[in-house]
Amino acid sequence: MSWKTEVFDGELLPLIAILRGITPAEVEQHVEVLIEAGFNAIEIPLNSPDWQTSIKAVSAKYGAGALIGGGTVLTPQNVDQLAELGGKLVVTPNTSAPVIRRAVELGMLVCAGCATASEAFTALEAGAQGLKIFPSSAFGPDYIKALKAVLPPEIPVFAVGGVTPENLHLFMAAGCVGAGLGSDLYRAGQPVSRTQQQARAFIDAYRGALQ
Fold first, then answer.
1. Angle CA 137–143–149, to nearest 5
2. pTM across the whole model
3. Which of 3, 55, 151, 194 is deepest in the core (most CB within 10 A)?
4. Is 132 a residue of the active site?
5. Domains observed in the chain
6. The pLDDT value given to residue 3
């Protein structure tokens, strides 16, 4: 199942790299090794230090070949800021119809956070093109499989929260197209070599789950 969008000229690998806590001084190095490994969807949460500088720099350098954006997007004003910085991806921790509608108005791709069927359908009605089940590790693959049964089959669902190279295949078997990868891919302050190592591990796990 591919994740194709109107805001990115190409097909996205459905693994979103979440760089929570990253700083402008290190962001380009980490994004570079992620892209070299095969990632092309990068999320910098808005509670990271000086996130505006990081997103602007990464969007300018890699935006032509990757989908760059922000996470923990809470207000329509945040969406406007992201758009001005060149961001095209909006990831929310919750189901906020005003945030989703504003992002869609600006031609951005939205992966909306939800946990229940009611939240999922609220997000879809507002225009979200993807759903983020959070925290996935707490709900487990069986819950996601049950939720997927009532969702439109063409809507990509991502597992986020507690996803590792070892359990990624379980969430994909439950119906997720991919996942948002947080602390097991990147922790604030870790060396670039660790990001490179984990990026390769997740790419291998994803390819293995498709077989």
1. 135
2. 0.95
3. 55
4. yes
5. 41-134+149-168+176-192 (3.20.20.70)
6. 55
